[in-house]
Amino acid sequence: AAFHCTAATAADTMHALEVAMPHTYIKRILNARVYDVAQETPLDVMRFLSARTGNNILLKREDLQPVFSFKLRGAYNKMCQLSAEALERGVVTASAGNHAQGLALAAARMGVKAFIVMPRTTPAIKVEAVKARGAKVILHGDTYDEASTHAQQLMQEKGLTYVHPYDDPDVIAGQGTVGMEILRQHPDTLHAVFVPVGGGGLCAGVAAYIKYVRPDVKVFAVEAEESACLAEAMQQKKRVKLPQVGLFADGTAVAQIGEETFRILKKTIDGVITVSTDEACAAIKDIFEDTRAIAEPSGALALAGLKKYVASHQLTNENLVAINSGANINFDRLRYISERTEIGEKREVVLAVTIPEKPGSFKAFCKLLGKRNITEFNYRYADQKQAHIFVGIQVAAGSNDRQELLRELDNSGYLALDMTDDEMAKLHIRHMVGGHAPSVSDERLFRFEFPERPGALMQFLNGLGQRWNISLFHYRNHGAADGRVLAGLQVPPEEYAQLEKYLQALNYPWQEETGNAAYQLFLS
């Protein structure tokens, strides 16, 4: 489910706060030392999106901080609370990038040596930014959890002081100043605030402050579907560790919600909203169109959640705030984001359509579409009777145009399969249409993900091709932290058990796609 809402009344919330959050937590936020290095960021009106949704939508611009992320607040506040002896030893942390930049700047300002352990999958723009602040960068592991384990080892070996990126009261208090600013900047009626969640530091601080000062204001946590550790924890009523975390929204790619942050969040938030990659991409476009700023995927999560909430509740004439938490994004990732935006906005439908293989068929098909634009068309001759086309078509957002189009095609005798939500079709098939191979036997199709780092693809190929012939292969670097491969393997039936055992032993997520309709129509 996309929503995991608590049913607490305002009175229940206040009682819970007295248990989970003594007044000293609010005092921590009020007394947080952040403005030596951080700015009070503006709360901008999103005029285009507000007009489109019929609400007053405001964007808290944490992307305008000196390190282009809110993380500077918590890192600096924690550093200010450390003893002279602890600072003298130096500090260490693990981070996918934003906390690393915040701590690096704080350490440079205070003259403290800093060691930052970052996953090897961290976007280069974040790694270089940390180095530029004078911190010592150590690349280790493919995930935050692997980097965190190594940072803990360094802390023990070198006697360093560990500064946690989110699960620390002083870090949470520093992030809570974002909530304090929101209420000060918008004292009028406010329906809800939407906050992105990874480990939970920002959301815990913001929710703690808002629910204490204005318990009538709803606070929603927003997570990527691929790393929804808080949603799972709320459902299980305990912290759980996700077996696998997607890396598209790398700034919030955490497998387990923090212990202290969960203690606060389960008593304060009004619900958790999970959003897809396509929805996050659409929100990045919304932010650009209204502000001309480019948010990182994690930075756009809150707005994506806000849009989802508005649509599901048919909300109008309300004041709503989303926090843009950061803008640290590799430029080459924009290509992938732009490809997914139209689908995320529900303005494009991707179809596999069977048409007669005869002159005039394509013209007749286009005539049926009316004024709808074709965004993509892929075709290759296969036989004399039928043609399978892979086509993208613009549809009107916020309407039943998608369903109406499918009805029109069906009524006109076209066999059309809707592949708008088929991840394999969007990632791979659209780039490979026409690759039928009638002479290939015993082919099975698999989709893989692996950490995107130098040498990873070659390592993957070396392991995959040692036993079975690779009969199909598609890989495209789209600027994300994870590489995605579609591979066909020729495997005799008597070797299926060996293949299953081999795939289970891989350290990469995989999924069989042999039965996928897109594969059957265009490639098999």
Can I get a quick summary?
With 524 residues, the chain is of the alpha/beta class. Helix content is 42%, strand content 19%. α10 (201-213) links the parallel β7 and β8 (218-224).
Walk me through the structure:
The protein has 524 residues and is an alpha/beta fold. It is 42% helix and 19% strand. The chain has 21 helices and 18 strands. Strands 1-2-10-7-8-9 form a six-stranded mixed beta sheet, sandwiched between helices. The protein has a four-stranded parallel beta sheet with strand order 5-4-3-6, with helices on both faces. α6 (98-110) links the parallel β3 (91-94) and β4 (114-118). α4 (71-81) packs across α9 (169-185) and α9 packs across α10 (201-213). It is globular and about 80 Å long. The two termini are 34 Å apart.
Gyration radius (Cα, Å) is 25 Å
Calculate the terminal CA-CA distance, rounded to whole Å: 34 Å
Q: Which structural class is indicated by helix and strand composition?
A: alpha/beta
* Number of distinct helices: 21
Largest sheet: 6 strands, mixed
Q: Assembly state here?
A: single chain
Helix content: 40-55%
Beta-strand residue fraction? 15-25%
Mean pLDDT: 86
Low-pLDDT regions: 1-20
Please count the beta strands (DSSP E, at least 2 residues each): 18
Task: Give me the side-by-side strand order of the main sheet.
Answer: 1-2-10-7-8-9
Looking at the structure, what is the overall shape?
A: globular
